[in-house]
Every structure is written in C-alpha cells, then in structure tokens.
C-alpha cells in the first residue's frame, strides 16, 4: 500500500497493524486510517519531516492533553492543532472547558490516563468522556499525519474523519 502523503516504505491499513498500537488505539482505528511504520528516534516533528518529507509539515498535527481546573475539579481534554500552530490553552481551551485555569497536563497524567506513550499521543482511542478539541484547519486538511499512540509509527487520517471521533468538538481559534 502507498501512503496518501509522505515517503514511507512501510504503510498498511491501520486495522492490519493493531499489533504495533497501544490497546486503546488498536481498538479505535478504522479502515480509512493508514499506519506508517517509522523510527521512534525520529518521532519529533522537526526530525520526522526532515527524514520522511518536508511536505509533511503542512499535513502534521499535534495532539496535546490539557488539564482545566475550577476549584478542586479537574477536567482533562485533548487538543489537536496543525504542527505549525500552537494550542490557545489560556484562551479558547479555558473558555470552552469553563475553567479558571488551564495548562498542559503533567506527562505522567497524560500517559497514565490515555494508555499511550508520551510523544505519540493521538486523538484516536482517547478516553470517551474527554472532550477532543480540534482546530478547523485540521479538519480542512485532506490527510493528516498524527501520532499512533506510540513513538514508533504514525497514523494518516482523513481530516474530516477526525471530526467524527468520540468527544470531538471543532473549536474556532484553538490553534494560534
């Protein structure tokens, strides 16, 4: 199989490579998602695009876990923005979650709550009760390169498919 974007030697329907995915991701992948096997040492965006194709930068999106606090209550959510932008945590995220303070979740919280590896967290297979905030630019991208839940490998997903994931909310102004 040839990946719809990038220059990858090993691309397969994600449903055929569940063995390389963390359990929550393996359970959630669909037939329109492509798994590309990549070097985990080259998982960070800048090194990744240098290795697998500069054109991937405009197709790459990052998923981050945020923690919103109001009093003693903590709300965890995931945010998905194109890699060339950053998440408006103190504006769009804080307002949407209705919290007084929002920040990136601690690494051990993000890893423990998702069952995924840090640096590979993906919106596919997140806890179903979590809000998944997605910048509109991600949805408008025909094919989006995202984490696979592990540092090894990536998923290529049609942008519009991401809007159908559990808890997905397309949030204007999320990416700045």
UniProtKB/TrEMBL annotation:
Residues 46-163 form the YbaK/aminoacyl-tRNA synthetase-associated domain. InterPro entries: YbaK/aa-tRNA-synt-asso_dom_sf, YbaK/aa-tRNA-synth-assoc-dom. Gene3D superfamilies: YbaK/aminoacyl-tRNA synthetase-associated domain. Pfam families: tRNA_edit. This is YbaK/EbsC family protein. It comes from Actinacidiphila acidipaludis. The lineage of its organism: Bacteria, Bacillati, Actinomycetota, Actinomycetes, Kitasatosporales.
